[in-house]
Amino acid sequence: MTHKIYAAAAAILALGLAPQAMACSGCGCTLNTDDAVLGNPAGWHVDERVDFINQNVLQIGGNKAPTQDPSSVEVQKYTMTIFYTTTIDYQSDQPWGINVAVPVQYRIHATANDMTDWTESKSSWNDLSDIRVLGRYSGLTEDRDIGLQAGFKLPTGRSDEKFTRGDASVIGQTVDRGLQPGTGTWDLLLGAYKNGHLTGDFHWFATGQWQKPLAQFKQFAEGQKLTGTVGVRYTAFETIVPQVQLNAQDRWRDRGAQADIPNSGGQVVYVSPGLFVNVQDDLSLYAFVQLPVYQHVGGLELVSDYTASVGAKYKF
Predict the structure, then answer these.
(1) What is the pLDDT of residues 83-120, one digit of tens each?
(2) What is the CATH code of the structural domain delimited by 2-315?
(3) Any residues with CB less than 8 A from the CB of 212 and at least 6 apart, and which?
């Protein structure tokens, strides 16, 4: 009975989401490839992952935005982001573990602002983003199929990138704080996960995580976020492990005098099919695509038609 209660709580935490800027600073996609969630054994695990996100659709609320006149309003043209994330995970023989994720963000952003000829002003960078450190405890059950997580997002990414090309009046201006590699804030991370067996060779997992900035930095704080994932994988094949996830993320509006409050916040839900390929006992490769089934933004924001992720995992 206790197991059922824990499972229900994890599923509710993963699915019961409530207010995500679609171009937030430190975040990549919502895909979950955490080894601990799948119940992997003790030891060291390294995950090298690349996420590609091309936000080129301007949306207002839940609909595509009508054509905007850049002489009267700033028009976001596109934001293309590639995240290169190295994650190092250690699980001891005891129910304690730690996970450290180090993301590097490559981003190109273009906007038109007060220019009737629609000349683009651009910014680009390739910088360290905000590192995440997450501890976990999985001693609630004998099977260690339930875990609690707690940790911090560190303010390691820059928050002062500027426009470098385009109209002379825009060059040198600081890019919107919600697009920077880092937020400048320490954020509290709390989460939980559950994995289990469905039937035959089908297995499931569910995760939920809450992220809250602890204070503003230079009059800016990213909105609180709730992120959840429910996934199913099929393990009958020795080499290939198909998997599908349902990912959801919800974020409150950004805060502070430097925040673009009206054009922040929102919700997104993705269905994410993919697979793992076990190359050898200690090495696996994976690839996923995230397809939006629901996107609702808080104001006038850019969204993407899909997100692609590839990676490699090594155990030792």
Answers:
(1) 999 999 999 989 999 999 999 999 999 988 654 556 78
(2) 2.40.160.40
(3) 187, 188, 224
